[in-house]
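<context>
A single protein, sequence plus fold
<sample>
Here is the protein in question:
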Amino acid sequence: MTRTPAPPPKRKLVTLTGKPVSIANAKVAVRRSLWWFWGLAGFSLINCTSDALGFGYRTVLGLGVTQLPEGFLPLGQAVRMTFALGAVALMVVVGLRARRFSMRWYVVGMFAYAADTLVSFVLRDWIALGVHAFVLFMLYGGYLTLCTLKELAHDAGDSAA
């Protein structure tokens, strides 16, 4: 008597941007979007270090608060650096908290970065403004995926996405 193997269990699929995607791949997509927060923190740290050492070098991928000129925030280099490092720390914390699929922290990070976009606008740094718009678009895609996962978990009665 020959046994036929049982068919593999069907994987649950979610629809993202019109395409069916497995839940595992959707979680990977959210985690990949979180790398933007850590990347922003890293590039901003490079900008802070460059500013503190007087290199005159900066990356457009960093936070705008790290490039505030002395006239814009006339409180001294140490205070500006503390403010910038606080923003960097916020991005690191957001990345760590949102990695647990926390909608609240993901939204906090998006709003903080959107507010940081205003610095690029005020400084008329159009390239940095374009980069900010692109990163916000990528973060929004991760947010929509996270919303879909949370909704699916809620419908299934599961507390973790």
Helices lie at 23-53, 77-98, 103-122, 126-156.
